[in-house]
Amino acid sequence: MDIRGRNKVSPEFSMSSMTDIVFLLLIFFMLTSTLVTADALDLVLPKAKGKTEHSQNLSVSINKKLDYYINKKKIEKANLETHLKAMLSQEKKPVIILRVEEGVPIENAVYVMDIANRNNFKVILAVRPK
Question: What is the CATH number of the domain that holds 91?
Answer without folding.
Answer: 3.30.420.270
